[in-house]
């Protein structure tokens, strides 16, 4: 029983690390998609548009990681690999959705997201990011 507990705890730590790394990659993705430094936009300038987009991205990645772990293979290595792969696929799909939305709408979406004034496009972009993540979740399940 103790061995199972320790094995489960170790696996939780490893899955947690993978999840945090994927969420950090999501932060990097949003930073690349938006002009300027995301850290400054959110934490210094208190930009609500950028914060909303990042929040949707982080929740989306968390949903993908959760779904991948929850539906994971019995084999830990396969489960870890699928979690990593689906997390990366999710990031790719989110970036693709951002670029598609940018092409379909007037102006530059990244610049709109960085605007000081709240903009409805930030909500649409956030929903697009989270929706892309849910599509990946459905593919996993």
Automatic annotation (TrEMBL):
<keyword id="KW-1003">Cell membrane</keyword>
<dbReference type="Pfam" id="PF03994">
    <property type="entry name" value="DUF350"/>
</dbReference>
<dbReference type="InterPro" id="IPR007140">
    <property type="entry name" value="DUF350"/>
</dbReference>
<feature type="transmembrane region" description="Helical">
    <location>
        <begin position="79"/>
        <end position="101"/>
    </location>
</feature>
<feature type="transmembrane region" description="Helical">
    <location>
        <begin position="12"/>
        <end position="30"/>
    </location>
</feature>
<keyword id="KW-0812">Transmembrane</keyword>
<comment type="similarity">
    <text>Belongs to the UPF0719 family.</text>
</comment>
<feature type="transmembrane region" description="Helical">
    <location>
        <begin position="51"/>
        <end position="73"/>
    </location>
</feature>
<dbReference type="GO" id="GO:0005886">
    <property type="term" value="C:plasma membrane"/>
</dbReference>
<protein>
    <recommendedName>
        <fullName>DUF350 domain-containing protein</fullName>
    </recommendedName>
</protein>
<keyword id="KW-1133">Transmembrane helix</keyword>
<keyword id="KW-0472">Membrane</keyword>
């Amino acid at each position: 029983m103790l061995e199972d507990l320790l094995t489960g705890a170790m696996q939780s730590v490893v899955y947690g690390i993978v999840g945090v790394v994927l969420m950090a990659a999501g932060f990097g993705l949003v930073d690349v998609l938006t002009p300027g430094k995301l850290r400054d936009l959110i934490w210094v300038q208190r930009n609500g548009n950028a914060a909303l987009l990042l929040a949707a991205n982080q929740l989306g990645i968390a949903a993908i990681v959760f779904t991948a772990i929850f539906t994971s293979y019995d084999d830990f290595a396969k489960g870890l690999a699928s979690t990593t792969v689906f997390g990366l696929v999710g990031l790719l799909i989110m970036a693709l959705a951002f670029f598609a939305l940018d092409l379909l709408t007037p102006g530059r979406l990244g610049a709109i997201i960085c605007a000081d004034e709240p903009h409805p496009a930030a909500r649409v972009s956030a929903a697009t990011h989270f929706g892309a993540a849910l599509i990946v979740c459905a593919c996993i399940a």
